[in-house]
Design brief:
Glutamine Phosphoribosylpyrophosphate, subunit 1, domain 1; seven-stranded mixed β-sheet; 5 helices; about 25% helix; globular
């Protein structure tokens, strides 16, 4: 299933996601895959940026879900607004889940969550077939995805995947930290600690990995990310800038730099920043 935690406030959006992937067998049992899958995409345009994570289906139709997400959203260089991106995910994602149902005979519960700054305003969007913003999740999945959203004016926490694995105490700790406006690394470490505790819970049945990726973005168009825990392979970070797959550019560079030997490549930390156009249409 997975665990995705999104903390949203007017001064920052913080998101962590684990790396666990399980395969559904023909008899509908699950097999744990011994590899990491980064369940997050960082998307950037001139007037907004966002983090997209998901819970539910981690791999289907021959590829990890983040690869389908990038494929749906990449385009010739240009602009798209947040609502347009959300609608593409809803439409393409509904078709994708329908194909999985035809292949597997199972209607999976699935949620995409977007935390974004449009200008300096925070937005959180759920695109789900069973979850709604500020509502109790439904037990049965619908046959299509729906969009609900909010613009947080005060700190809020959104947990998708296996939310019952996160204790009330840990939720309260994260909210207190978020209100305190600490350095990004402090919240990142706290989210990673909560993810690890959730992974060790008896409620998850190997559904969450102890390792995770924590990422944050801010209203000044900056951002930073860092992996936590043991990951015995090169992580494939996913990002799109103005519709271009920048993650692919980075991966191609690293393959060329290492001569194709990516076994010992480890992403320690990343940072991002971009400028918004001035009134003359040029970057600052």
């Amino acid at each position: 299933m997975t665990l995705s935690i999104t903390l949203a406030a007017p001064w920052g959006i913080y998101q962590s996601c684990d790396f666990q992937v399980q395969t559904v067998n023909s008899d509908r049992t699950l097999t744990l895959q011994l590899r990491a899958s980064v369940k997050q995409v960082h998307i950037m345009y001139s007037s907004w940026q966002g983090l997209i994570s998901y819970s539910g289906v981690g791999q289907a139709c021959g590829a990890d879900t983040h690869k389908w997400l990038v494929d749906w959203l990449k385009h010739d260089s240009g602009q798209r607004d947040l609502e347009e991106v959300a609608e593409i995910i809803r439409s393409k994602g509904s078709q994708w889940l329908a194909q999985i149902y035809r292949d597997k005979g199972i209607l999976y519960r699935h949620t995409f969550i977007i935390g974004a700054f449009v200008g300096r305003k925070p937005h959180v969007i759920l695109i789900s077939n069973y979850e709604r913003v500020n509502n109790t999740p439904q037990l049965k999945a619908a046959d299509r995805l729906f969009i609900t959203s909010t613009q947080p004016r005060e700190p809020q926490i959104f947990i998708t995947g296996i939310p019952e694995a996160v204790s009330d105490k840990d939720r309260k700790t994260l909210k207190i930290l978020l209100r305190a406006k600490p350095e990004p690394e402090v919240l990142h470490r706290a989210m990673a600690k909560v993810n690890q505790a959730a992974a060790l819970s008896t409620k998850v049945h190997n559904g969450i990995s102890e390792a995770c990726l924590a990422h944050s973005i801010y209203p000044d168009n900056k951002g930073t990310s860092q992996p936590y825990g043991e990951v015995n392979e090169a992580l494939s970070l996913q990002s799109l800038m103005q519709g271009q797959d920048t993650g692919e550019l980075v991966r191609n560079f690293l393959k060329e730099y290492t001569g194709g030997n990516m076994a010992n490549v480890r992403i320690v930390q990343t940072a991002s920043a971009f400028s918004q156009p001035t009134q003359e249409g040029k970057g600052d």
